[in-house]
Amino acid sequence: MSVFDEKPLYDNRLLVGVGYKDTKPVFVNMAENPLMGICGSDEMGRIGYIRYLINEYAANSDNSPVRLYIADDPDAALRFSESLDITKEYSSSVSDIVDMLEKVHGIAESRYEKWKNDSTALDDEPLVILLLNSKMSADVLVSTDETATQFSSIVREYAKCRVCILIANAENKMGSSYGSGQILSALRDSGNLLIFENIGDIKILNIPMASVRAFKKANGAGDAFYLRGNDLIKLKTPLSE
C-alpha cells in the first residue's frame, strides 16, 4: 500500500507530502492560505505534483468544492484540466492572466463585503484558486499598478475570503523589492513554498549551511523541500502523470 493511499483531500486540507524524518503526512489548507508557490524541475516532480493537486480536487469536489482558473504555459502541460467540472477557465495564453486575475479579484472583493458583516458567511462558498503555471506569471502580476494592487489585495486584505493564488511555476531565484522579484519575495514570506530541487540548488531561499549538510543526499523523483512557516521539511510528494 502506498503511503499516500489513506490521505484523501478533505475540508480543503491538501496533502503536500509525507515527511522523511517522521513519516507523518503534511497538509496545507488552501482556504486558509491565500498564497502558495511551487518551483523547481519537472524531472523531480513539479508538474507531476500539480497534476496530483488538480486530480485530488476533482475527485473530492463533493466535500471540498473548488473552482479553478488555470493559466498554463504554452506547452499546455495541464490541458487535461480544461474538461474538468471544477475548472471555471483554462488558457495557455499569457495574455489571459490579467483577465483571470481581474475576475478572481472581483470574487474576493464581493466576498469580503459579506465576510465583514458575518465571519461565517463564506463557510459554504467554494474555494477559488487562480493556478498560474505560466513562467511569465510573476512578471504579469506586477506589470501594472492595477495588477499589483489586485494581487496584493487577494493575498492580504481578502485573505479570509477563500480565494487564493497558486504560483505553480515560480522562478528559483532570490526575490527583490522590484519587478517580478516582489512576487518571489512574497512567496518566500508566505511560508508556503514547495521546491523540487536538491538542497544546494535552491536559490529562492537562504539555506543555512547546517541544512545543506543535513540534506546533502541527492533528491529523487517526488522528493521536495517544503517551507512551512519558518521550517524547511524534506518530503516525499505524491505525483500524477
Topology overview:
Blueprint: E1 13-19, E2 25-29, E3 35-40, H1 46-59, E4 66-71, E5 87-91, H2 97-117, E6 127-132, H3 137-141, H4 145-155, E7 163-170, H5 181-190, E8 192-196, H6 209-214, E9 223-228, E10 231-236
Parallel strand pairs: 3-7, 3-8, 4-5, 4-6, 6-7
Antiparallel strand pairs: 1-2, 1-10, 8-9, 9-10
Helix pairs in contact: 2-4
Produce a short descriptive summary:
The chain has a single domain (13-236), classed as Rossmann fold (3-Layer(aba) Sandwich). Helix content is 28%, strand content 25%. The protein is globular and about 50 Å long.
What does it look like?
The mean pLDDT is 92. It is built from six helices and ten strands; from the N terminus they run βββαββαβααβαβαββ. Strand 1 and strand 2 form a beta hairpin. The relative contact order is 0.20. The protein has a single domain, classed as 3-Layer(aba) Sandwich (Rossmann fold), CATH 3.40.50.300. With 241 residues, it is of the alpha/beta class. It has a ten-stranded mixed β-sheet with strand order 2-1-10-9-8-3-7-6-4-5, covered by helices on one side.
What's the story with the biggest beta sheet?
A: 10 strands, mixed
For the termini, the CA-CA separation is 19 Å
What's the SSE pattern? EEEHEEHEHHEHEHEE
The CATH topology assignment is Rossmann fold
Q: Sum up the overall morphology in one term.
A: globular
**Mean pLDDT, all residues:** 92
Radius of gyration: 17 Å
